[in-house]
Amino acid sequence: MKLATLAFLPALLGACSYQHYQSVFGNAGTDDHQFLTLFAIFMAVCTVMYVAVIAFLIVGILRRRRAGEANVVETGRHHRAHPLMRAGLIGWGAVVSIGLMALAITSFFTDRSMAQSAAHPRLSITVTGNQWWWDAVYNSADASQTLHTANELHIPVGVPTRIILRSNDVIHSFWLPSLAGKQDLIPGRETDISIVPKKTGIYRGQCAEYCGAQHANMAFVVNVDNYPDFINWWRQQLQPAPAPATPLAQAGFDYIAQHQCSMCHNIAGTPVGGQVGPDLTHFASRRTLAAGTLPMSVGNLHDWIADPQSVKPGTKMPKIPMEETDLRAVVAYLETLK
Amino acid sequence: MSSPFRASLIIAGAATLMVCGCKREERHSDSNPLAGSVPAGERQPTIYPGGGTPPPLDPRAARYENNAPALAEGQWLYAQMNCVGCHAHGGGGMGPALMDDKWRYGGRIDQIAMTIAEGRPNGMPAWRGRLTDDQIWKLAAYVRSLSGQPSKDAVSSRADEMSNTTPLTLTPRQGPRNADTAGR
Amino acid sequence: MIERAWGDGNYDREADEERLAKERRTISRDGPKLTGAKLEARLARTWARPPGFLGWLATVDHKEIGRRYIVTALVFLALGGVLALLMRLQLALPESGLISAARFNELFTMHGSTMMFLFAVPVMEGVAVYIIPLMLGTRATGFPRLNSFSYYMYLFGGLLLWVAFALNIGPDIGWFAYVPLSGPEFSPGKRADIWAQMITFTEVSALAAAVVLVCTILKTRAPGMTLARMPLFAWAMLVTSVMIILAMPSIALCSSMLISDRLVGTQFYNSFEHGDALLWQHLFWFFGHPEVYIIFLPATGFVSVITETFCRRPVFAYPVVVLALISTGILAFGLWVHHMFATGLPRVGYSFYTAASMSVAIPTGLQIFCWLATMWDGRPRFQVPMLYVVGFIVTFVIGGLTGVMVAAVPLDLQLHDTYFVVAHFHYVLIGGAVFPLLGILTYWFPKITGRMMSETLGKIGFWMIFLGFQLTFFPMHWSGLLGMPRRVYTYPAGLGLELPNLLSSIGAFVVAMAVLLFVLNGLWSYFRGAPAPPNPWGASTLEWATPSPPPDYNFAHIPVVESRTPLWDTKDKLPVVTGLRVDDKELLLTTVVAAAPDLREPVPEPSLWPFIAACATGILFVASIFSPWAIVFGAIPTAIAMAAWFWPSQVKRHPEPVIG
Asked: Which end of chain B is more exposed for a tag (fewer CB within 10 A), N or C?
């Protein structure tokens, strides 16, 4: 049974054309830009080397051999190889060594440049990996300005952002290819990644270290906004959840508060305070649900809550036997959490 | 050639060793959870005056008792739902110890599940409606492992946390002692 | 020489001469008086393999053991390939529901584990165990019973893994089983333990085979085959075997620590109790990186062999190739952290590993130059084995260059754990190891079976696998760059991943058909192929001086070698030594460097004890998956079996010095 309601904004993911929002060609961050430059240099040098090898191979196969070069098998006499071949070997060794040294040095300088651009972050986010979703806290010295969300980030363009990475269970990896390389989230350790976005837009990232059954469905969305939009978003997210406006939404909130949902989820500003699962305070402002598994829409939300195990088998969110009326009420309430 | 004969001997031997493993490793798709909750009014009796016998074990038990994924999920739930707050890691505190052989309300898995679902006097909350039946059964299965009851190859030795008990694979088995349980 | 053999200077020459005179009356040796068909009949009787089923289990003939290794490894190749086809079926379309997540995770775990542990290393060892004694001009390997034991351990390890998979309790933790995912909390049940114990089986097997090969290569070469005259394949296997001995203990250790964590709750990988998840990665990759060179170096040996024969000249710059093999083997141990560039270790340290990883390309590049120079200078004939060598060059070099790319930290941080890396390692493993393997199996098929493989089917198969491989794996570079991580059972539509994945899936079926064609060619040729003469390819090394297939005793007379290409330099008149016994099995041991004749060593008789010891050890290992007490109780039958195996026999004769 599907609710025929206003369709929520479909995620960009549903769109047909792909726009490098999850690819190294996105070129939307300084690290990715440096990657592309270095990759181009490596491709050029490696292509030249490869062409040289193949040319040597082809000429070696096709060249016409003179009668005097009879081989050992037929004559029993070993002849010396062409005198230039030894020089060729040494020259080849030198070319390969110099080429590799040049590549290694270029790589080292790029690495240093990436480290330097990470030196002065202005925004700090702590992302904690769980099986199979992302918890995010926007750090602040003032506790009342600390923002807690999940699976979707907004960051301002041009601002160096440092993301501190932790894990609650197994090793995950935070990978936002359009903006930067990846970094692992290792339990018992703290790693970090620096992102300096250059272009506004919506980008998708994915977990890149096998972390169990639903590793394939552990994605996240990063919105790069211009600064005023980011501040608006941030201020909005710091607000507690709006009170339910309609009776149906109120019924949904009551269900959530009195049943299994409140054991795991948190809705700021209400008694619903579970810390196990993703924060739902501004759930409806996200573009995806279930960590990038489905685009956010009423129908998808309905299907997800009705049976999470059929959408993402093995997920920690259980299938809760609900009446259809309760389900509709819960969905209606969650829709109000913008 | 005798190679197929030899190969089939080896396979038969290995299979018998591992065939008992199938139930242990089964991952249930929880799209088909337990049919309904136990209706509110019905309880598992734990006292059988006059020499009565306890009812037969709930058939749902076989899905959970020695099922490794269920035990692992129960371990996770035990930590996340803060059972540790009252029961510690089996040693008890505000709540009774779970790693010994004394079970006030029965030590069989269905009796433990009933205890969790219904709550008990003096502080055990009722989790029916707060956790799904499937989650409650998984917790019950894990609670049994604190006293070493499930088969040792289904339990996990420890969690990735600070060490707090004997590894569960080495915990000696202490079956429920109370006369009013099934003595399993 | 006599003084050196006996050492203490109190040698009683007269007593020895008397003993020898007595022996001459009672013992038969080959020599000018016993030669030709009569000699061959005597040797066949002496070296005959024991009959019957028990005799088949008890054999220590290196040719039989080598054949078993190769056949078993090819079966595992087929099984692993079927898994790959299933994965590609699932990934052909986005968001496909063909195979569930749990099942897919098992598939890629089994595919990787089977290919790496049950196919790639054992098949190289199997080919080596078969051909090295023949190539070195001797009749047996050193430690032949250890050789038999190593095969049985390999077989039991493979059966453990696959029977578990067939019973639906196979591992699903990835072939490298990172903790904490493979640890006690996140991998419930025994799946991960079965994986870890399979490792123990295969590592014991590989270590045993490596010891056998090192001993054989260093001590049993034909007289005159100095290290500088040894075939390049023997050099490759020597370096590989030393690498195995140094690398395998690392993974045996870390997998045992994993079993210990899971079985008895130790804290090796628990960061909350001062263990470390990265400890696993370091120990695993300290093995894992040399492992890929353990797979690659024998393949370079294959390429050297084929190039020499089919270009009809010795490989150019033999000393350079040897030094390249040795330096690759050494450098391979200093690279492992390049698998951990995303784990947050200090960046300065990473730069060292970038430099080291790139530098290992230099010896490989020099080897490639040498092969190309051999082709340039020789007269190449493009029969099937040589086609595979050309396919190797074209494919492996691409893989090597993408390897140079991922060796750079900034590039690796984007490319790590994506399909770009999947493309890279399949290019180097299939291009760099499987193509030479298929070429060498075609090349040595006449020697092993006595028949020629079909040239036509071989050429069709080559082109199918070469083109199918490119179709399968080249698009993976693209899907990796477009954002597809590894080990995902599906991917969303709309990211541009549909086309590369579909192409890869189509290509996978082409490759599968090519492998099937190769196997059918082998089977058909085995029964109906043209009978093969001793040296159908006109090659230069000693294995071609025997009939095809070789008799149990390999050589009627042990040859003497005076150059790197003995058969080319002596035409039909290969010099030999005489004087080895024909009424008992005897091996001629020579000195390590100069291969001067040194001792005549009795060869162990066929024995069931290696099989029994492998069964006892196997039971010990499998039972210890379930209980730590198995280590105590299982040690008893293992000790008994080993004691029976090593029990000194009533030796009627001792190793004798070579006189004259």
From this structure: N
